[in-house]
Design brief:
single chain, 170 residues, mainly alpha
């Protein structure tokens, strides 16, 4: 293959990625990078600052309305379970991961299943990263979600939670 053909092929392969980056403003790229940091290393020194920055980003206008309704978060069984380490981090992570998903996939922003799945999967990535460093930090509900995910049944569970949430609203 000629050098010119290689360059053309490389550009063709990179075009979707470059297009996605061009559509995102620097705030969105920074937001996504911080979310991914939390999903991979939630106990790092940088994680606290990243989490604070994401929370500020979440509550400052005009972004607040971009986030999902809290009822759509199927992690509610984590609330009120005593003083468990990392509880607050796990509870807020779905909101961060959902917004990152919306930035990365704006065409799916109205798909409640896809957005909520992204939030739950982000929370599970944080949970798995925590378990790698602190094997004693198990939560029964999150262990059950991991089993559902691994069995390919997480979407069914999320659909049930979304249905329950819709019923609560009406």
């Amino acid at each position: 293959m000629s050098p010119l053909a290689r360059i053309a092929l490389l550009l063709a392969l990179l075009l979707p990625f470059v297009s996605l980056l061009a559509q995102q403003n620097p705030d969105e790229r920074d937001y996504i990078a911080k979310v991914r940091l939390l999903e991979t290393d939630p106990t790092s020194k940088e994680a606290g600052n990243a989490r604070t920055s994401l929370m500020l980003f979440t509550v400052l206008p005009p972004r607040r309305e971009e986030h999902r309704h809290p009822c759509l978060h199927p992690q509610n069984p984590l609330r009120g379970k005593g003083n468990k380490k990392h509880a607050a981090d796990l509870l807020i992570q779905p909101q961060f991961s959902e917004q990152a998903f919306i930035y990365e996939h704006p065409d799916q922003s109205n798909d409640d299943l896809a957005v909520t799945r992204a939030g739950v999967e982000g929370m599970l990535r944080v949970y798995e990263a925590i378990l790698k460093k602190e094997a004693f930090s198990h939560w029964e509900y999150l262990d059950d979600l991991l089993k559902l995910r691994d069995a390919g049944k997480l979407d069914d569970h999320i659909r049930e939670m979304l249905t329950s949430c819709a019923e609560e609203k009406s």
